[in-house]
UniProtKB/TrEMBL annotation:
Protein name per its UniProtKB record: EAL domain-containing protein
Source species: Alteromonas genovensis
Domain of life: Bacteria
Residue ranges of every copy of the EAL domain listed in the record: 24-279
Stretches of the chain forming a coiled coil according to its record: none
Parent-protein start and end of this portion: 490 to 775 of 775
């Protein structure tokens, strides 16, 4: 047929390739502008973490949202990976840190006593000027390092690329909590856990979403909880969507739970209201 006679390089110019390429370019251009203007297109939403040991809400995760005028809603899974590849992640993280510290100050001022977790990429950790920047920003805001935590995706941490472990050690020494995000999806060997200076494993939601129905997910989750505790780490499950799942996690000694069953991620004002409304909620035996 006709296609077989085309020179090989022509394959790259398929309509799909064009569409994908154009979208990536638009994301880069539009995101850069939005960050530069501190545009209302960008926001952070907060999702609580339920502490199962104390049955209280003591932590929340900041998640970025972007609804572009031209592109519509773009999910962070998409624009964060484009930003990482395009060398734009530093500007993204800078925006996130500023906003999250402002919001944390707002929370503290309103007697909402939670530690706020920010997602970082390994590229951020390798940027040696980030930690001093964070330190001076929290000092300026009158906050302590115990009020912030950082989550780094496991696949970024399986090898000690360019000394990321020793950089992470500096975050720990400064008093920040560190978690390995999406745990269970990124490793081929567990030996890296010995040398990682982290406090917490966060079980990937792919093992948790169907926990109440799926036997092999139950085995995996139980195993990760024991693994974490054997390494003296706290463990949190993300993607908890049902009460039966939450009950199982509680029964197995999981330290924290996060997911739509407890709350979806919401804007900071709504989070404060939710926190006040749910101070005395008994999540397990309802
Ligand atoms: P993540 O850090 O692992 O965040 C968990 C994701 O699961 C979030 O998706 C959250 O909204 C979603 N989720 C939470 N509970 C449930 C649940 O019960 N069911 C289901 N189906 N999903 C749930 P989101 O907000 O789309 O973020 C996706 C990823 O994008 C994040 O994964 C994180 O890796 C990245 N990301 C988000 N915000 C930032 C940011 O400010 N900086 C960086 N570097 N990455 C970010
Ligand atoms: Mg996270
Ligand atoms: Mg995750
Ligand atoms: Mg993730």
């Amino acid at each position: 047929d006709h296609a077989r006679h085309l020179p090989e390089h022509r394959v790259r110019y398929s309509p799909d390739f064009d569409a994908e390429y154009t979208r990536r370019i638009s994301i880069i251009t539009e995101l850069k502008q939005a960050l530069h203007r501190d545009s209302p297109e960008l926001s952070l939403v907060y999702q609580p973490k339920l502490c199962l040991d104390s049955s209280s809400i003591s932590h929340a995760e900041a998640l970025m949202r972007w609804t572009s005028k031209t592109l519509g809603f773009v999910g962070p899974d998409e624009f964060i990976s484009v930003a990482e590849q395009a060398g734009l992640i530093g500007a993204v993280t800078d925006w996130v840190i500023k906003r999250a510290i402002n919001d944390t100050k707002t929370l503290v001022d309103n007697n909402v006593d939670v530690c706020v977790a920010i997602n970082l990429s390994a590229k951020d950790i390798l940027n040696k000027s980030l930690l001093p920047q964070i330190k001076s920003r929290i000092a300026e805001a009158g906050l302590s390092p115990t009020q912030l935590a950082f989550e780094i995706t496991e696949s970024d941490l399986v090898s000690d690329a360019q000394g990321v472990y020793s950089e992470l050690g500096l975050y720990r020494e400064a008093g920040f909590t560190l978690a390995i995000d999406d745990f269970g999806t990124g490793y081929s060997s567990l030996s890296y856990l010995k040398s990682l200076p982290v406090n917490e494993l966060k079980i990937d939601k792919s093992f948790v979403l169907n926990l109440d129905k799926n036997q092999s997910d139950q085995q995996i989750v139980k195993t990760i909880i024991d693994l974490a505790h054997n390494f003296d780490l706290k463990v949190i499950a993300e993607g908890v969507e049902t009460l039966p799942s939450l009950s199982l996690l509680n029964q197995w000694g999981c330290n924290y739970a996060q997911g739509y069953f407890i709350s979806r991620p919401v804007p900071v004002e709504q989070f404060m209201q939710w926190y006040k409304d749910n101070k005395n909620t008994d999540w397990i035996s309802q």
